[in-house]
Amino acid sequence: MLSYKKYWYICVVTILVGALCAAFYLWKIEVPQYQATALIYMRDANTQISVSDLQLNSELSSDYMVIFKSRPVLNRVIADLALNMTYDQLNNSTSISTIEDTRIIKITVTNTSAKTAADLANQLVERGIDTVEEIKSKQPYTVEKAVVNNNKINTSNKKVLLMGMLLGLVAGVGGLFIQFMLNDKVRSIDDIEKTLGVPVLAGIGENKDLAKSRKGGRKK
Questions:
Q1: Domain residues of the chain, as ranges?
Q2: pTM
């Protein structure tokens, strides 16, 4: 049995190894991410605000959130800044939300460059506001046209592969279990006692050196 001192030694070593692995990940593997946030205040021309106006502002906030993340707006932002990125990449790195009990919309962009994140957030505000003004002048207005999506929406290839691997593992373990249960060979003294119901007085051990010499003699 291991003493308590050895247990503590193992714990300390594993903690140090974990810390070194974490430090290596932070310094060599992890890519730094930066966020920049821009705020938009939805100002109404009317000085008096009623309950219906507050409800309308809430609905407009939801509309703005959809418009600002629409494909045409994000593609314009990418083109304006001449960035080597796709619509999906910018869409996934952009979050738009409303600040509770206010008429302020918060736009946050995440990027590996702090400056690029700020440029994207600011340009997204400008292009989004331009699009909103354009929408107000036309009724109805096409916010985003449909594009060809080559990604199938039924079964994911990764899920199918994982399910196949899981089923294979279950089948393999099940087969081994069935083979073990059906195997009635006597493997030990305990098996003899359980099968015959009588105690075993002595047993003959296997001489590994003798077995090896026999195998060597057969090969010759």
A1: 1-30, 34-137, 157-201
A2: 0.55
